[in-house]
Design the sequence.
């Protein structure tokens, strides 16, 4: 009976022999393929198809919108708010001068906020608000419908 170490030695020897055989055959196979490609006039596209490159994700780095007057730290307004602006009730105090000249626009999608949500645009201190639509549920009585709509 053969021991574990003898079997392991045989395995290593076989692996070495397999690598040698592969190295000898690879050159022959490559030469064969090159001959066929030249004979038939094949291109890389013919063999491998159209190669699709993975599009690199671009980092979305925006211009900073807010600046901490004490430390000079900046924040774009996207993502988690930093501690220095998190508790601020009025963030306009932290607006950067170039960002402050642009009129702030806040728009809420009715789909995102649910039916009956208002759409508000604030431009240069003026605000226009629409009255939210009132919903009346099915099966409500006539009095409830009158109360809701009017």
Sequence:
């Amino acid at each position: 009976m053969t021991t574990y170490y003898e079997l392991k030695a045989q395995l290593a020897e076989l692996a070495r022999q397999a690598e040698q055989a592969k190295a000898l055959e690879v050159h022959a196979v490559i030469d064969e393929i090159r001959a066929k490609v030249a004979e038939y006039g094949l291109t890389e596209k013919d063999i491998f198809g159209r190669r699709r490159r993975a599009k690199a994700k671009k980092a979305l780095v925006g211009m900073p919108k807010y600046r901490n007057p004490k430390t000079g730290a900046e924040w774009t307004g996207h993502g988690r708010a930093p501690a220095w602006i998190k508790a601020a009730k009025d963030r306009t105090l932290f607006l950067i001068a170039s960002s402050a000249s642009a009129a702030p626009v806040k728009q809420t999608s009715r789909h995102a906020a649910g039916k009956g949500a208002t759409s508000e645009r604030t431009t240069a201190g003026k605000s226009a608000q629409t009255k939210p639509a009132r919903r009346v549920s099915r099966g409500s009585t006539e009095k409830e419908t009158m109360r809701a709509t009017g």
Observations:
- The longest strand covers residues 121-123.
- Strands lie at 66-67, 74-75, 121-123, 126-128.
